[in-house]
Amino acid sequence: MNLLAPYACDPARSLGRRHAEAAAADRTPFQRDRDRIVHCSAFRRLVYKTQVFLNHEGDLFRTRLTHSLEVAQLTRSMARSLRLDEDLSEAIALAHDLGHTPFGHAGQDTLNACMAPYGGFEHNLQSLRVVDRLERRYAGFPGLNLSFETREGILKHCSQRNARALCALEPGGVGERFLSGHQPSLEAQLCNLADELAYCAHDLDDGVRSGLLPFAALEEQPFVAPLIDQVRREEGADLHPRVLLYTTLRRLLRLCVTDLVDHTRQNLLAHAPLDVQAVRALGPLVAYSPPIAAALQALKSFLFARLYRHPEVEAQRAPAQRLLADLFGIYLEQGVPDPRDEDPARAVADYLAGMTDRFAIREHQRLTGLRLFPSE
To answer: Membrane spanning segments where (predicted)?
Structure first.
């Protein structure tokens, strides 16, 4: 059995839940968190939320759900290598996108613009709202009542204004580190980087298979091209194109995972944190080596220019933005079913953020009579 390192989050020393609960006899607090996340409604809805391609454009493209599962696999695997808590790492990964809107970043940007007069919209903060407040599954408390450590990891980003608001409601809680400059746990840091690595690899895959990203473009990318050449030399030049793509992406992931684990071990040896509180007081410890970090940054820039801003992807932004802006205006005027917040605008934002792509499309067509997207 792989014993936890002293700098890992020990479930026996969890900082607890906002609402006290008796301990379970057969599961740790972090195992219970993971199970609650998997069974919640918001997690199931991720299957019909856009990652890059709209949900109805093809059955093989990633959704928020499949992305979250891939992040969980990477995070758990690396957590095991670093002797961190695997269950906490997995719970954070599975919950990190629960607050994402339909239609990906186009939806997020639109909802933030609509909410600008009412405090704005942050998808990471919305993920926290989902697990803290919006899910309704228990008689004794709102939300899922997750442990501090899981909630800390879910809140990857937070504005100073929202952090102060969180601290007013929960002094010393998950918003505190954004004011003090402290770091989250190593499990949370690991999930942050696994998230970025997962979407880089799977967006290359989806981009090529969609036809929007020519494979030849990958052969011009400095980080990927040597891996393609290596696969051809070792596996044969006549590989099926899909096998060539998958083998290259596996090697990309292996290279990055190995580098991240090795460089993080070096950082841990250099700083020797004695416990998780020492981790929080230090700078980021989970990191790539500088060459790999630079290569991944260049890869993200490549994806942004060649895929995320591809004309066919961009063409979906305008109808998605119009659809959500229309729905926001309609619901702000007439209200939403079963509001979860006394503030009407925030209740609308909660309702819209919880929608799947296909439900939002159907609701817009029902309320306006317009069809902005082709039939699913």
So the answer is: none
Percent of the chain having pLDDT more than 90?
Answer: 86
The CA-atom distances, in angstroms, between 263 and each of 112, 198, 291 are 37, 19, 11
The pLDDT, as a whole number, for residue 52 is 63
Question: In the 8-state DSSP scheme, what is residue 101?
Answer: P
pLDDT digits (tens, 9 = 90+) for 88-108: 999 999 999 999 999 988 899
- Distance between CA atoms of residues 64 and 48, nearest Å: 8
In the block, which residue shows the tokens 């979906």?
A: 316
User: Which CATH architecture fits 26-202+249-368?
Assistant: Orthogonal Bundle (1.10)
| Contact by Cβ (8 Å): 184, 150 | no
Q: State how far the Cα of 220 lies from the Cα of 199, in Å rounded to an integer.
A: 20
Residues 6+ apart with CB under 8 A from 198: 67, 70, 71, 74
Structure tokens at 308: 């995320």
Backbone angles phi, psi at 110, to 5 degrees: -65, -45
- pTM passes above 0.90: yes
- CA dihedral (91, 97, 98, 103) in degrees, to 10, reads -160
Residues β-bridged to residue 142: none
User: Are 135 and 45 contacting, i.e. CB atoms less than 8 angstroms apart?
Assistant: no
Q: How far apart are CA 364 and CA 361, in angstroms?
A: 5
Gap between the Cα atoms of 61 and 51, Å rounded: 8
**Contact assessment for residue 121 and residue 227, using Cβ atoms and an 8 Å cutoff:** no
